[in-house]
Specification:
Pfam families: RBD_AKAP-17A
CATH architecture of the largest domain: 2-Layer Sandwich
CATH superfamily of the largest domain: RRM (RNA recognition motif) domain
Protein name: A-kinase anchor protein 17A
CATH class of the largest domain: Alpha Beta
Number of strands: 10
Number of helices: 6
Number of domains: 2
Oligomer: single chain
Largest sheet: 5 strands, antiparallel
Strand order of the largest sheet: 4-5-3-7-6
CATH topology of the largest domain: Alpha-Beta Plaits
Structural class: alpha+beta
InterPro entries: AK17A/B
């Protein structure tokens, strides 16, 4: 799981003051650069050079992350991440519809840029799913929209304070954090179950720095309102 250090906390929203946890909106964009047809044998376009030109186009603003997501003979696609959503709007005006002129090439490279939409289910998605499911009984917990599946949670952020196992997440802490949205029926952290070794092997991954571990969890709310409040907040 890639981890980004946050410098601009202006859009951060408190999730748990007790455990110093905050939510921050994802501010990402996709940038596509159309490449000209290469007419001379042996001539090529440097992905690195195009990336540097994209960076220069948004200066003095900066990407916190800019990576190549796909590269073909016809285009280069970048995924960029910035500190907040306001910056995304500014960068879109500087990139979308603009062109890049590379030395040694007569044709210009056309740039298109769009803001990434958050890949998260909407209320319509989960309501229609459970409404249309023939084998679901909405009067039963787990067979209605009441459970959230979370991945990539840092273990240290959800461990007991002063615990002798700082890399071990706590169900009690998870409940305390998510009860801000509504009463919790139950939570499940698969990696804490010694009988689910196969699931642990699959999901017990490491961060890209610091050696800290992350985990997955399931949080089931008693009321529909708690579930929707949590989903709306996490999606924002």
């Amino acid at each position: 799981m890639a981890t980004t250090i946050v410098h601009d906390t202006s859009e951060a929203v408190c999730l748990s003051a007790e455990y110093n946890l905050y939510l921050k909106p994802i501010a990402k964009m996709t940038i596509s650069v159309a490449l000209p047809q290469l007419k001379l044998p042996g001539k090529s376009i440097s992905n690195w050079e195009v990336m540097e030109r994209v960076k220069s186009m948004v200066a003095p603003e900066q990407f916190s992350v800019l990576r190549i997501s796909k590269s073909t003979m016809d285009f280069i696609r970048f995924e960029g991440e910035v500190e907040n959503k306001t910056v995304v709007k500014n960068l879109l005006t500087r990139l979308d519809g603009k062109t890049i002129k590379l030395s040694g090439f007569t044709d210009v490279l056309k740039v298109r840029a769009v803001e990434n939409k958050v890949d998260c289910p909407t209320r319509h998605d989960w309501d229609s799913f459970f409404r249309d499911a023939k084998d679901m009984n909405e009067t039963l917990p787990g067979e209605r929209p009441d459970t959230i599946h979370l991945e990539g949670l840092p273990c240290r952020w959800f461990s007991q304070k002063d615990s002798q196992y700082p890399d071990r997440p706590s169900e009690e802490v998870l409940i305390a954090v998510f009860e801000t949205f509504g009463k919790i029926r139950k939570v499940d952290i698969p990696m804490l179950d010694p009988y689910r070794e196969e699931m642990m092997d699959k999901n017990f991954n490491t961060f890209s720095f610091g050696g800290h571990l992350n985990f997955e969890a399931y949080v089931q709310f008693v009321e529909y309102g708690g579930f929707t409040k949590a989903m709306d907040t996490l999606r924002a």
